[in-house]
Write a structure and sequence with these properties.
Two copies of one chain form a homodimer.
Chain A (H helix, E strand, L loop, with lengths): L2 H8 L9 H4 L3 E7 L2 E4 L4 E3 L3 H4 L8 H13 L8 E2 L1 H11 L7 E5 L2 H18 L7 E5 L8 H5 L4 H4 L10 E3 L4 E2 L5 H4 L2 H12 L5 E6 L3 E2 L5 E3 L1 H13 L3 E5 L23 E4 L11 E5 L1 H7 L19 H16 L2 H23 L2 E7 L2 E6 L8 H12 L9 E4 L7 H18 L2
Parallel strand pairs in A: 6-7, 6-9, 9-12, 12-13
Antiparallel strand pairs in A: 1-2, 2-3, 5-14, 8-11, 10-11, 13-14, 15-16, 16-17
Helix pairs in contact in A: 4-13, 5-13, 10-11, 14-16, 15-16
């Protein structure tokens, strides 16, 4: 059997209709280096979505491998209940330095679990401060926070959640969100007009609301939409006035994707809970983290007999190998001045996507921020899977685009070289032209 | 600041009341080797619970490090949607070989996520075969399946779930479970008498039941209780007759802990969904897997437009580094004849725990299977945290016991040497004697 047959015999691929693989078999990757995936057939693909938004530094950085080996020589992983080690302490310090107020860190491996920890903890914290009637969650319309059922309950993605409705919690979705094309958009700094209906919506549930969860600035699975930083300022002010917790899900946006360490930094707001994952290890190993404030921590801090503990755990909470990789990633960001280089990449991405739009006449609603740019296909029949066809065509041409429905986007490693973006633009343009003739 | 202060400034430890750390600070681990944790103060601790039940082969096996490095040189991780690689194909073949009927594998990182996938998929599968009214889950009384909210919904652990009740689904808990002291117990082969009330309980909900989830043979967090293999035979027969799915959560029991590759092998039953994690990488890196049958897979297999896809994903679904480690673990099990050596370890564990019970007169209800033995402390005031005190005393003496409440257990790496078990017994005995004077 060749590897494709062996794969399809046993692997149920994530986020896939497996029947699609009959005509579009999985691409066999044997190696990856920098921004490129090397295939078994000898060709390469540009990793245009950073392997699901996580490989912020590309593939196979030798410094990361050295850090991984160094750690493996001493300590792979131990239970983190009642123990500590220099690696996890260092990582926790690195994470606590991200914000002025989020001093405490709890770990898991999957991003969904970090979201579940934040939601559970917010509810529990409200109880502990005598606000047990605050049991409701709100989230932004079109948001996405993961696939475990509580995370899915606060995700506004019909397709993903429809079959599981009997298992989901109710959630108040805030709509409409003031989307923008980027930081130069007028609404970026002022969305007061759009805020008022949201405020009205929130005021109706203010006495029972526990927390509001959101992907700050960019909604990933929701077609890479960007929204006003000013919206977050309004939201933060309202939440503070109404004793409602804010949960920022920075799993996709964190560590430079929007140009700043955190996307909430665009709005200069503080939140009560922060979730990070993907970029934390530059997509090398799974580790996720939830940060919260000393104020929240103190609510749970009491004699054991009082029964106030947050008894949440995962086996690999704080896996030491993953933590060592994460620490190395923090160092590389410094050493390579990654944050300083994003503006140039950002402008280049925008310029090239505009060029593709101009040449093909098939892309509209171009938006970009940091190291991400997106546009929607202009098509007659939006129910046809044009994006999926362009995806397949682009693979023949040398890029792993994987559009979101009929939205094309580039989301390359933050250190992707300029010529690779040019290549990516050529491939995208050709693929669009071939499919949307 | 010393490392303890630095830790407590930022780390919220899992499954902990952080105030406990004031008088019992986290133990600083700098290295681990085989069955021993090496501390910053120069002493060692026996890893008596295999770092939360996962380090089946102990720490720092050079073969695992070699496999990890070899993989890191070529491919760390890529998106697994629409791609494949030799490493994940090999792992999926290894997993599919575990049972005759579970041919399809889906991955996550945390064990809880594997459980959520199985629960979601079982509900979805019932819908797809016209049984959408089957929305209820049943689970064994005293069971535990994880901390994300759907996993917690089917866990019968009051302490862990109480604060989150508003977020949990209802679940039918089957009671009482026919517990046994081990495979030599009369009830191990025949629990017909105990089965009848359970059957009655199940019959009352048979038309709305979607799936039954259980930890086969051993309930971990529920005080390491062992139950009749015959119970699982009855359960499997009933489920088959009533079109109800069975979900075996082997996250803790899988890969040799009960003496066989899977705990369901004791009963010779087939299930519809199987969850594994912990031992899969011998606790080196986080990866979890959910297996299901071709029959279930086929329900979801259709043209994309039919909307039958199982659209679940995690960023690190099938992380390649973790998969490489898992493949190496499968090889080590063969190379070192791990399964063949468990019976000797098993007998030794039982014998030594009985000896501790005899010498101290403070342990009762000794039960054991495979590489696990447990006993309950005989105490006047069961609300006192005797187990916690013995835990602290044992750390001074050289073992990381971490009891479950007032239940002491040994759950060492499967390749732990005989003299280490003798040491562990001495330490346990001394710690009990010092605390329960």
């Amino acid at each position: 059997m060749d590897i494709t047959e062996r794969d399809l015999k046993h692997i149920w691929h994530p986020c896939s209709q497996m029947k699609d693989y009959e005509t579009f078999p999985p691409v066999t990757i044997t190696k990856a280096q920098g921004s490129y995936l090397h295939l078994a057939n000898g060709t390469t693909l540009i990793d245009a979505n950073s392997s699901w938004w996580c490989k912020s530094l590309g593939h196979a950085d030798p410094r990361i491998h050295a850090a991984l080996m160094q750690q493996a020589k001493t300590l792979e992983h131990t239970i983190l209940a009642n123990t500590t080690n220099p690696t996890i302490v260092k990582l926790s310090e690195n994470l606590a330095a991200l914000t002025p107020n989020l001093n405490k860190v709890m770990y898991a491996s999957d991003g969904s679990c970090a979201v579940e920890m934040a939601l559970k903890m917010s509810l529990h914290a409200q109880q502990l401060q005598g606000q047990g009637h605050r049991q409701q969650f709100a989230a932004l319309g079109n948001g996405y926070h993961g696939e475990t059922c509580l995370a899915l309950s606060v995700s506004d993605c019909g397709l993903y959640s429809e079959p599981y409705k009997p298992l989901l919690q109710p959630c108040e979705y805030l709509n409409p969100i003031p989307y923008v094309s980027g930081v130069e958009d007028n609404k970026w700094h002022d969305c007061s007009e759009e805020w008022h209906p949201i405020e009205k919506q929130l005021n109706q549930i203010k006495d029972t609301l526990c927390a509001i969860i959101f992907e700050p600035i960019v909604q990933g699975a929701g077609q890479m939409q960007i929204y006003s930083a000013n919206f977050l300022k309004h939201l933060a002010a309202w939440a503070k006035d109404n004793q409602v917790y804010l949960i920022a899900d920075e799993i996709m946006t964190g560590f430079g994707r929007t140009g700043l360490p955190l996307a909430i930094d665009h709005a200069g707001i503080e939140v009560d809970f922060l979730c990070v994952a993907k970029g934390l290890t530059a997509g090398v190993l799974p580790i996720s983290a939830m940060l919260t404030s000393d104020t929240v921590y103190d609510l749970f801090y009491d004699d054991y007999e009082k029964g106030k503990s947050f008894l949440h755990s995962h086996t690999h909470t704080g896996n030491t190998l993953a933590a060592a990789v994460a620490n190395c990633v923090f160092e590389i960001f410094q050493e390579d001045n990654i944050y300083q280089k994003i503006p140039e990449l950002s402008a280049h991405l925008r310029q090239q996507m505009e060029a593709v739009a101009n040449h093909t006449g098939k892309l509209t609603n171009i938006r970009h921020i940091g190291a991400m740019v997106a546009g929607d296909l202009v098509v007659d029949n939006p129910n046809t899977r044009w994006g999926f066809q362009i995806f397949q065509e682009a693979i023949k041409l040398g890029a792993m685009l994987r559009p979101l429905g009929n939205t094309l986007y580039w989301f390359p490693p933050l250190n992707t070289e300029s010529h690779t973006i040019d290549e990516l633009a050529d491939i995208t343009q050709t693929a669009i032209a071939r499919i949307l003739k």
